[in-house]
Amino acid sequence: MVVLKKLKASTLMETMVATVLIVVIFMLSSLILNSLFSAQVKNNLQPLKTRLTKLEYLYNNKRIVLPYYEEWQGWEITIVHVQGYGSVEIMAKELDVSEARIVKQQVYGFH
Q: What local confidence, expressed as pLDDT, does residue 1 receive?
């Protein structure tokens, strides 16, 4: 018959400490991932750049008249002539005062 050996078991306190450590590490990693993803979504300017490109297309095809002003999804978009350069500047300024980001785009040689 096989002789059963007695195994040393963990105490309740050791088990609780290990569980707390695992939960804390999981919580910290979740918070870090959440902040990374929210920052990525907030700094995504691709929809704005697409809108500016569309406005440039409309201007080149004489569908809009300058000066042009528009508010679009929290951005104030303006299109004006730049004096002395013969170009047009398309500028988007964020309406949220805390960040105040500005995106500019130049259009040369039209009209």
A: 56
